[in-house]
Write a structure and sequence with these properties.
The structure is a single chain. With 468 residues, the chain is of the alpha/beta class. The chain has a domain of 315 residues: Metal-dependent hydrolases (TIM Barrel), CATH 3.20.20. 30% of the residues lie in helices and 22% in strands. It contains twelve helices and 20 strands. The strands form three sheets. Strands 8, 9, 10, 11, 12, 13, 14, 15 and 16 form a nine-stranded parallel sheet that branches. Helix 8 links the parallel strand 14 and strand 15. The chain starts with a strand and ends in a 21-residue tail after the last strand. Bound molecules: N-(aminocarbonyl)-beta-alanine and zinc ion (2 copies).
């Protein structure tokens, strides 16, 4: 007897869409087909889509920010919100503080996550202090233990690495088979523009966008790709916001570089005008790179349609708007420079792409699955255990009602913050049920488990040939 059968649904993978029941035992998918037999529980998916659980490979949870500001989500609220949005795995970042060992940083994040997660989790490392011992000893050992990706920053005073340091990090990736993710914005150019804006008393949130124009991102993207070419490593260009950066990725690919592009909901749906709100409301949309304009939204859509982007992630980076930790009054200093960077979105990532992409006729259902689940598993070493509906895979499923309409209201979401940047947006298609490791954890939009079912997952090294 099976533990669970998902019956009468339409299964979609990154390759196919087909009618099938899904039989589950001991946390794994064990049979596909019809008339599979008896199970202890039956999930009737008539009229619904049965998709691999979403994998959001770019989220920030409980990550300390400058000025001692604390994020709005801990592992409990962040993964709960992710689960309600149809995700079964998230990949938060583990931030190394200056002077800290990577091991100490990881111990801290594991302690926060352990026993508190509603989804499976796996960590990327953020390297802020690539000392010889970090590069020579710690990092290679951690890659072997399953921390097979790390992010480097070209911006933020306290995080940015110099080109020489990025090259050294890439050299470790070259030797170990790890994957480097790069945040591409030119910090010196931003600093120059920030000083000029403040000298002109342009302190409002919209100055966040005008001090980080597309040229800042284009130059850094070009430089990151050049460094990767020199170091002979594959690279992920994260949270790409505009057509010029997309062109840099396409050019690098045509030179033979293995590059993965990622974009996010904010670059399809928001613009810099949103930062120009009255009474500091624009702070709700401050993230880096900033949202651009409608023409750049179309460029990002084209990147999704034509394949420049393999990954669609949320870059969920939640700060409250009100209160002492909030964006409204950042430490009492009224300049855009002090607004914590980042916006929430782990729960709304997939509904937005489903509604505007699949229902809107821009991408196929299989492309949706690839962009939100399968490609994340392939890029970051979780495939085929995760990211697909196949015999032997983890029984991580999201059951979607493709006709269900919703208006995004923060009051209905499940994160720890106090607003959604997508408030009021009309959506068609929403996940109603989620199965994690064979357990039916959300039933008809109701949470049926307590925290702690989600566990940490070590990862394989990425095999990028899976993506091509
Ligand atoms: O504004 C953003 N994106 N904050 C999150 C940190 C990052 O750079 O991904
Ligand atoms: Zn970033
Ligand atoms: Zn991020």
């Amino acid at each position: 007897m099976f533990d669970l059968i998902v019956r009468n649904g339409t299964v979609a993978t990154a390759a196919d869409v087909f009618s099938s029941d899904v039989a589950i035992k001991d946390g794994r998918i064990v049979q596909l087909g019809h008339d599979l037999g008896e199970a202890r529980e039956v999930l009737d998916a008539t009229g619904k889509l049965v998709l691999p659980g979403g994998i959001d490979s770019h989220v920030h949870i409980a990550q300390p920010s400058g000025d001692g500001i604390v994020m709005a989500d801990d592992f409990e609220s962040g993964t709960r919100s992710a689960l309600f949005g149809g995700n079964t795995t998230v990949m938060p970042f583990c931030l190394q503080q200056k002077g800290q060992s990577l091991r100490a940083a990881l111990d801290g994040y594991h302690a926060l996550a352990e026993g508190n997660c509603y989804t499976d989790v796996s960590f990327h490392l953020i390297l802020s202090d690539p000392t010889p011992s970090v590069l020579g000893q710690e990092l290679p050992a951690l890659v072997e233990e399953g921390y097979t990706s790390f992010k480097v920053f070209m911006t933020y005073e306290d995080l940015r690495l110099q080109d020489s340091e990025i090259l050294k990090v890439m050299a470790v990736a070259q030797q170990t088979g790890a994957l480097v993710m790069v945040h591409c914005e030119n910090e010196d150019a931003i600093r120059f523009l920030v000083d000029a804006h403040e000298a002109a008393a342009a302190f409002g949130p919209v100055s966040h966008a005008t001090t980080r124009p597309a040229a800042v991102e284009r130059e850094a993207t070009h430089r990151a790709l050049t460094l990767a070419e020199i170091a002979r490593v594959p690279v992920v260009i994260v949270h790409v916001s505009n057509g010029a950066a997309i062109e840099e990725i396409a050019r690098a690919r045509s030179r033979g570089l293995s590059v993965i592009g990622e974009t996010c909901p904010q670059y399809l749906t928001l613009t810099a005008d949103d930062l120009d709100g009255m009474d500091w409301e624009g702070a709700k949309f401050v993230c880096s790179p900033p949202p651009r304009d409608q023409a750049e939204q179309q460029n990002c859509w084209r990147g999704l349609e034509l394949g420049t982007f393999e990954l669609f992630s949320s870059d969920h980076c939640p700060f409250r708007y009100d209160g002492p930790q909030g964006k409204r009054n950042p430490r009492g200093r009224k300049s855009f420079r002090h607004i914590p960077n980042g916006i929430p979105g782990v729960e709304t990532r997939m509904p937005i792409l489903f509604s505007e992409g699949v229902v809107g006729g821009r991408i196929s259902l299989s492309r949706f699955v690839a962009l939100t689940s399968t490609n994340h598993a392939k890029a970051y070493g979780l495939y085929p255990q995760k990211g697909t509906v196949a015999i032997g895979a983890d029984a991580d499923l999201a059951i979607w009602d493709p006709r269900l309409t919703r208006t995004i209201r923060h009051a209905d979401l499940h994160d720890g913050g106090d607003y959604s940047p997508y408030e009021g947006r009309a959506i068609t298609g929403w996940p109603t049920d989620v199965v994690l490791g064979g357990q039916w954890v959300i039933r008809d939009e109701e949470l049926r488990v307590s925290k702690g079912l989600g566990t940490y997952r070590a990862r394989q090294k990425s095999n990028l040939s899976l993506l091509r």
